[in-house]
Each structure stands twice: as C-alpha cells, then as structure tokens.
Sequence to fold (276 residues):
Amino acid sequence: MQVGIATGAARGMGLACARRIIGTVDVLFVVDRDGDGVKQVAETLSTSSTRVAPITLDVTDRAGVRSFSETAAAEGTLRAVVHAAGISPTMADWESVVRVDLVGTALLVDALTPLVVPGTAMVCFASMAAQLAADTVAAEVDAVLDAPLVDDLLERLRRAAGEMIEDSGAAYGVAKRGVQRLVQRTAIDWGARGGRINSVSPGMIDTPMGRQEAENQPMMRVMLDMTPLAREGRPDELADAVTYLLSDAASFVTGTDLLVDGGIVAALRTAASRAE
Fold:
C-alpha cells in the first residue's frame, strides 16, 4: 500500500495539494488541528482508488506526531508528504510562530525519517519571507535555527536575534528560513535512503490566511503592486509546484527551495539594489 500525507489540509494550499495526491497513493492521511474540517475533507475526497483518512493533530505535540508516524507506517510504504500546516504572523505571538512553523516541521520530519524508502518524497512549506530574511539573518541566528528540537530553542533564538525576533512578522521569516535549512540538511540523510525532500516558498496567495494577512498588513498592498505578474497566486498554482516536486519528473531534485511568488522577491531585491 502506498501512503500519502497532507498536513494543513482543511483549507487553502494544504487542501489544494491534498486533492493532487488523490489517485497517486492508496491511502491519504489529511491532517489538521481542525478536526471537523479534515473530516469533511476526507468525506469529500475519498475515491475508489484512494482512501482518505482524517487525522486531528497539533504538529507541536511531540508524542502526537510520533504516534501519527506509527499509524502511517502501519498502513504501508510512505510515498508522498506535503507539510503545509503552519500559522502566519497575525495569528499568534512570535514564540507560537516559531513553535508551529519551525519546531512542528522538524518534529514531523524527524518522526517520518525512519519511514523513508526509495521513492519517498516530501515537500515542506517555507515562505518568500524566508528568502528575504536570508539577506539579513546573522550567522549566529542560523546556528540556532539548525538545532530546532532543543528544549531551549526560544531562549537561544532570543539571545542570538535580539529584540527584533519578538515581532511575529520577523519571527515568521526567521522560522521559515529554519525550514529551508532543515530541508537542506535532511536531504543528505534521506538521499542515503533513496528519498527526497524539498521546500516550496509561496508568495502572496489568495487563501483565507493570506487574506487575513492582507487585511492587517498595509505593506501587503504595496508588495502586490510591485509584483511583476501583477496579481496574487492561486492555491492550485502552489499545488502545481508541489505536484512536480513529489513526482518522478523531479527525481533528481532534492534539498532545494522552489520560490513561487510571481516575482515579488526579485522585484524587492532589484528595488533595494537600485536604491543603494
């Protein structure tokens, strides 16, 4: 039996990705904190070729994540994983953002590593914010990000980054940079097992979470106006990128980040260089 996993699958980009996995695996676990949401998704997506099973899970729950990995292992061979679960800056304080977006990702990757076999592929969601953070993050902050499962991560991060990390927007970019770096390191171990892992960095995407950010951050309007393609992205466009990274067409692609942002990072960097 081929097993697939899609986290953050109750809505938005996670749901769009879950739809693409249908038909490519025998069993698909749709995972979210919103238990009612994933139950509804499972009822909607189940087909004769793919059984869809809902899982209610907080990815920061170490024991819960480990238990889920055992459930997935019992079903068969791990084939495809999309980890889209996460929170945005307006949803929580900086500590929660780091716990969910970085620590939660690291816990899931760690729990699934023993399940990796030839043909396993995973895509973790990072963000264009991580690409931008890369231009300013200090080496000592990166060093802290590279040990995301230590008990005193938040204290270490606060010491290394200073007061700036207490802004949830700054913490978001830093946490997502940690995800990108996690993927790079993990690709080495997974490659020895015949598996692949990559990240995808969305720009401004028309989802409920994206709309919430836009309503609370005026800068989002400015960035949209600067986007070379002059529009927001659609969840299905992110799912297209993820589908490629999970497929055999990307069989030689691992340990990298795919930026899907309509060109806004390029525009911002170009504007910054011209202003110097």
User: Anything to note?
Assistant: The domain at 2-205+234-263 is CATH 3.40.50.720 (Rossmann fold). The chain is about 50% helix and 15% strand.
